[in-house]
Design brief:
The protein has eight helices and seven strands, in the order αββββαββααβαααα. With about 280 residues, it is of the alpha+beta class. The protein has helices at about 5-15, 70-75, 100-110, 115-120, 145-170, 175-210, 215-240, 245-275; strands at about 30-35, 40-45, 50, 55-60, 80-85, 90-95, 130-135. Strand 3 (about 50) and strand 4 form a beta hairpin. The chain has a seven-stranded antiparallel beta sheet with strand order 2-1-5-6-7-4-3, sandwiched between helices.
Length: about 280
């Protein structure tokens, strides 16, 4: 991180999003992406715009001929953290394409002409990215049981959105923009699901098995289900490059497998986790 960005980030966080100097009076956010190769968090201050109920950022890089690193990061790992000064939340980053991108960019340039000057400096089409806030599905329960329900609720909500996008996938006008929505939300779902299952296999399940040896066969069965779902997840990610024939069917199969898995896991684990009282 440059010393300039570091100073802006510190001032932003110390003053609830208010930054002086060249940014005084401008609306800034902090965007945290995960490194495309390293997976490590990277935070950058960005100007933002609002349109159609969405928060928008522009990958201008001051008119450079290459996209900024944060844009490459969010293409690989779409789940990002947004800080506005008033709140912090999770979002899926979805670049706009085609006519939608052009309309959004024109609107932004009318408000901030500098972006038009940046576009004039480069042949690349400067991306406009919508930061689509994820739907939080908080449970009414605390402790580890509540955390499990929160994660499962988030996964169910994201998968439901992916199913909806896959069913609506059109051809012709608008297909490019909807395709990127499908890709980004599907990747966000798949990466989160993979992380959740790995955490369960590496940490939660071995701990619970020590406390409840009689559940050994249950954990073996759940581990096998994780492997089946992982294969479906890998197939989905590969199919994102060409989400045509059969893609919606892949999503539907994932939905059936995952819903059955989550229901069965909750039925067995929630009583145990509640008994822990943690």
């Amino acid at each position: 991180m440059s010393s300039f960005n570091h100073a802006v980030i510190e001032e932003f966080r110390a003053n609830a999003g208010q930054v002086g100097g060249p940014f005084e009076g401008s609306e800034l956010i902090l965007l945290t992406t995960s490194g495309a190769r390293s997976g490590k968090p990277h935070t950058v201050p960005l100007g933002c715009a609002r349109g159609d109920g969405e928060l928008l950022v522009v990958a201008s890089a001051a008119g450079a001929d290459r996209h900024p690193a944060w844009y490459h990061n969010l293409l690989a790992l779409p789940l990002v953290q947004v800080e506005t000064g008033a709140e912090e939340y999770e979002a899926v980053a979805v670049p706009a394409e085609g006519a939608r991108r052009d309309a959004l960019f024109a609107r932004i340039v009318r408000a901030e002409p500098g972006y038009g000057e940046y576009q004039a400096r480069t042949r690349r089409v400067i991306p406009v990215v919508a930061l689509q806030r994820t739907h939080e599905v908080p449970s009414q329960e605390g402790g580890i049981a509540g955390k499990l329900l929160d994660v499962h609720g988030w996964l169910r909500a994201q998968l439901a959105l992916v199913r909806e996008l896959a069913r609506e996938e059109p051809s012709g006008v608008g297909a490019a923009s909807l395709g990127l929505q499908l890709r980004q939300h599907c990747l966000a779902f798949c990466h989160s699901l993979e992380f959740h299952h790995r955490s369960e296999d590496a940490d939660l399940f071995p701990y619970l098995e020590q406390q409840h040896p009689h559940m050994r066969e249950f954990f073996r069965r759940i581990g096998a289900e994780h492997r089946v779902i992982a294969r479906l997840q890998e197939e989905l990610v590969r199919a994102l490059d060409a989400p045509g024939a059969g893609f919606s069917e892949r999503v539907e199969r994932m939905s059936r497998e995952l819903e059955a898995h989550l229901d069965g896991e909750e039925a067995q684990l929630l009583p145990v986790l509640r008994a822990l009282g943690a």
